[in-house]
Sequence to fold (753 residues):
Amino acid sequence: MSSVLREMRHTRRVRRLGELEWFEVAYRVYLAALVGGGIVLWLSGQVTDEPATAEEIANVTTHGPAVLGAFVAISIALGLRSGSDGGPIALEGADVRHLLLAPIARRSVLIQPVVQRLRTMAFGGALVGALAGELAARRLPGSGPAWAAAAALAGAATGLLFVAVAVLTHVLHVPRWAATTFAALVLGMQAGAIAGWWPGPGDGIGSLALWGMRQEPIDLISLAVVVALAAAAVALAGRLRLEPLVRRADLVSQLRFAVTMQDLRTVVLLRRELRGERPRSRPWRLTAPLGRGRHGSVVWQRGWRGLSRYPLARLARMAMLSVAAAVAAVAALRDTTPALVVMAMALYLLGLDALEPLSQEVDHPDQADGVPHERGWLLVRHIAAPAVGLVPFALLGAAVVAVAEPAAWAGALALAIPITWLGAGGAAVSVLRDAPDPLAPPVASSAAVPPEFAGFTSTFRLVWPIAISALATVPVLAMRELPTTGTAARSVAGLAVVLIALVWWVRRRDEWRTKLRDFMDAGRRAT
Amino acid sequence: MTGPALQAVELSKSYGDAAAVGPLDLTIDAGERVVLLGHNGSGKTTLLRMAAGLLEASTGSIAVFGSPVGSIEARAATSYLGDQPIFYDDLSLREHLEYIARLHGLEDWQQRGDDLCEALGVAARADELPTTFSRGLRQKAAIALAFVRPFELLLIDEPFVGLDLAGRIALLELLDREHRRGAAIVVATHELGTVSAAQRLVALRDGAVAFDGPQGTADVDTLVMK
Fold:
């Protein structure tokens, strides 16, 4: 019967190739080459050709394995999480229904997607590794090809490790809490290795990446372990469980489509579905901090009810994001300015989680349109409950900063809440930007826009909410330069001004857009 | 094949803190024709999906003719027609029929496939992609796929949804034929018109068996409406 399977797969492959739009493929290759080439050129510009000093080489030799091992540890952690969520493969719904319920060995069906995933991840890792190796060769001793080959091998091993760990976690039915705990342990051990306290789980592969410069035969043991894990994953492919495969079958294809369409809200919802993250059937016992019954407090009550059904996993993730933002703020205070990017992203993601009541309203435009109030009136009131819900997370972040930088405790306390609110403000813009637009013209105005410009505008649409979240990090820079009460007060005032402007934008957005469109139409008619 | 067509022992399924089914015990003998009744959310679909092997039981066990659900023997014996038809995007109905029949070891599938398409009124569309069909036609195509392969236990979830009168009649005739052949049939439905042909009624309420007895010994309307 596996001959039937092979035959039908071959038929489908031939048919898909026949239906391929070659122009579309060529355009994708062109875009990938453009973006990839740009990244490579930019990275090349960042690395000088000046040979590293003896001290720098010693530094790389000592700390390189642990630092590069961080990528390996992240790969293991992601694999653990993916496997516990039913990953790493996603089949077609029809394959699950018709093939996996047929009386044929499941291994014969599942081995191909597992091998395919291993191959893709290994190739991607090798590509990134080879590029990094080539760049490293410009400053460090050793030939370019040797560096590229060694780093490519390490990259491929990192990619393989993700898939192998995910398959084994899935097959062994590791519960999500255990996978998360183990992932945290792996990351913690690697962090300790970077600090020089103990060896980390990623050190071996990290050290392998340095073989362009020096060779440690013991690193081959790590490589052998990765190969053994990948072989075990292939051998156990037939034991992948049907229930998660059923769940993922539809969700993953929808998720890919949503990512292609840059539909962030759908991505968030589908990822929650993939993880099985559902609102609690029994809400937390939370009492809304304000009274009920007044006009408009209905929206407040609705928001609060939504928050009280947040599952524990989401609350834990929000706590982790606020801790991550705080740690990044501490790093920025200690002169690692790029950490502010991490802080902005963490606050943005925290906001996306916190603004669920607003997102729910946006998801149901018919409901909002049926309310005898302007949309802005309704939407702006939906911000209140999440804003209050964010306060404990802001205080958690302040506590982390206070512990790490005791001298900055007062500033952290004063700034934590407005910073968190503005960071979440970027998420609010993102949520509202994706809302169905009742004022939109029947034909998309971007229809006649050339692809390059459409790419620019869609990138701008994606980036500007994050840029608003990034504004929330400015006070950290200000406090680093001049840590005084006056700086803190001015920062609070600045944040308040931006926040008020943001709330005003939510309230008046439709009105302003109508005016702008009328103005543009009038201009078009005049010309 | 030995043992009952379907045997669930202390079977339960829960999602987090929400219980969907059981724990329940249920035995369906070979050749029995059973209608599974219950209001929305009573656990019918979950029970059938567990019996088909698409859902894992939280506790307990379930076996088909003595083989654990999911084993090759159980898969060979069980045909499952879910409430949502699922097809490949790039295969015609006829290609689906061939693929599924041959996967189940039936090389001489053409006549059987043609007869099914004829009976269900989809013969003229057999070379088209079922993903482009209307809801009713998709359901008819899914019924053809469920019947084209050999089976001893048929699990069907809400099969009459979207079907026109001709489709309903054709499906009932197919069910009669398979029952006469000796297959065990379990139909989960709200269509009370189909109950008269059943030997046995099993009503679920909140995931537990609320009634289990021969047809005619209970007020069906009450079982469904309760």
User: Anything to note?
Assistant: Chain B has a mean pLDDT of 90. Chain B has one domain: 6-225.
